[in-house]
């Protein structure tokens, strides 16, 4: 480690290196940690406990996990320049409040990374305690990162030191656009296999196209409850659905490269900027998505946005209209180019590293002990990578 190297304590759901992620938080955090390390920063991983089933095991795992993290933060002897947390909020808000304030007392600068959607709902939570905890964390933060530009206008963020930090891909993994479909239409579904992500709508889309005599295949990549997946497989017998299960992140681009459309009928109330959406677009897949989270802002004019209540038939109709109009090549090129223009680490990471250095100071080291009282920063929020 060089004398000017920064040490970042990175806290949140984090996928183990080389292992399939359990969701968007884990995937995004694993990617960012690896990229920060490649940029020469020292990163200390403070991973949340992985989800467990049934619910009581999940509660126990998270409770013990948060207690362990609090103990580590309170007793650690090493210096951390920055404490970067991606809070899950909601029922975890009070535990995350404790972690953030413990880290500040250790002298680390606090970076709060607001990922996933429904922030406005969290701010207006019926629980006064959760509202107060979230407000306290945001007030204590010396940098607030947001994955959706609309969050920059939230009253709780506006006027603070803020940075637009969407999900992204490595520019080196961006593929060439595949050939337009001539016979078989290749669809992809990537992510957690849960009802709220719309997998059943995606299968219904295949059912409709298949019934019309279309050559079609749906490739399903991701993990989920074994019983639920078994039911889906049983109900889709005879349909061209290929179940790949969980795939290590480095292998995902190769699995997507023969695709034509990314079907994303998510109804998840916490939807934000989907990793899966960006990854699919980076391989030239045309996105057909629900109007949820930041989907509309992410795809811009490179795909089709449908109502959250849209059916499998609606998705099938959108696909057929694109093919009938001869729009597929244009949309595929636009999807890939939008990722290159807006959503690559090469474009976004330098701004984050610069903010870290601004917070830590030129020498990247400060005396140990509790952090002194600080005046809130009033710099205008800027958008990383934008002119």
Describe this entry's structure for a reader:
The protein is α/β, with parallel strands linked by helices and 387 residues long. The protein folds into 2 domains: 7-168 and 345-360, Rossmann fold, CATH 3.40.50; 171-342, Glycogen Phosphorylase B (Rossmann fold), CATH 3.40.50.2000. 40% of the residues lie in helices and 15% in strands. It is built from 13 helices and 12 strands. It has helices at residues 24-38, 55-75, 93-105, 119-123, 128-140, 199-211, 226-235, 252-256, 275-282, 295-299, 312-325, 328-342, 345-360; strands at 7-12, 42-47, 82-85, 109-114, 143-146, 162-164, 185-190, 216-221, 241-245, 261-264, 286-290, 304-306. The protein has a 6-stranded parallel β-sheet, sandwiched between helices. A 6-stranded parallel β-sheet has the order 9-8-7-10-11-12, with helices on both faces. Helix 10 links the parallel strand 11 (286-290) and strand 12. The model is unreliable at 362-387 (pLDDT under 50).
Radius of gyration: 22 Å
Category by helix and strand content:
alpha/beta
Please outline the major beta sheet.
6 strands, parallel
Share of helix among residues?
A: 25-40%
* Global outline: globular
Task: Note the beta-strand portion.
Answer: 5-15%
**What is the number of helical segments per DSSP (H or I, 4+ residues)?**
13
